[in-house]
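Pasting as-is:
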Amino acid sequence: MVIFDKATKIYEDGTRAVDRLDLEIERGEIAVLIGPSGCGKTTSLKMVNRLEELTSGKIVVGGKDIHSLDPVELRRSIGYVVQEIALMPHMSVAENIAIVPRLLGWDKKRIRRRVDELLELARLDPARYRFRLPDQLSGGQKQRIGVLRALAADPEVVLMDEPFGALDPISREGLQNELLELQNTVKKTIIFVTHDMEEALRMANRVVIMRQGRIEQMGTPDEIQDNPATDFVRNFIGEDRLANISPDSPLDILVQEPILRVKPGRAASEVLDMMEDEGCETAQVVDKNGKWHGMALLWLLKQASRKGLSAADGLTRERKLLIEEATLRDAAEMLADKDLPIPVVNETGEFVGIVTQAGVARLTIGRLTRKRREVKD
């Protein structure tokens, strides 16, 4: 379905971002490109829809050399999802999903049917969500709409550039599950870029590990885990990193995005509605400059809402850790005392992320399963 034939990208300064890449991605396959920063994975993805132009070699999509196609028409025929989502803020959910079908000249009835069909596939009630604006959605809901927008015109190929990278682990895992379920129905050819090895192993039919613009190893998730071809691959899949974790390790390995991040002026009643939608009991209140104002708690927000106050009136500031000083032990002790997210800030008060019991559990599970694999080997 998508063929890279000695595809090469060299920038004007001489940087060889992609070096004679040979790769064939089959119809209906999820191929995940992963590797360290600068390995060429995102450049390879963007060459497919000509956001990056090839220096040499060729790429074939659906039997057609992409350079025989008009770039604009090519991009309209390929779904594209990015981490930043980039929904049009002045457009409703339905209007955002329908952007490409409108450009392709679909009639209004067909567009409406397609929008409702996609919302239902994503378990978002059309009657409730089609007229909402992006600002009325949580991060996870925005990302779902971004995926639906990419699928709206029913493309054969979908490109996904770290689509869930900005989400907290719980939201990310939920959307991963939803995408896999959706794929069972729509059976698209998906090229998926991630920096997260666990995500790659979970999502892929085939994992493509890249290094310096070339493929270091390619195979199924089981093949990659059971038979790493080089020390680079073995280290990259995380065995050494997980083995060296100790209670005194820095906290940054646990830091994740919150499910909800809201601005101080947001009405407490609105934040309560968002919490209900997401099924959570806390939200981080962060201003436009990134400064952390506190953590909104459900019971405090209810009090503020009854008085018609804002989210800033339902906060606690007592629970937090400094990223420069805190260790895994500090986080574990605080979580053992109370099962609430721990906001993490830097020395200047800027919000970094949160630490949760679920994050600690995932780290522990990852370490134990890696150890078990080593023992079996």
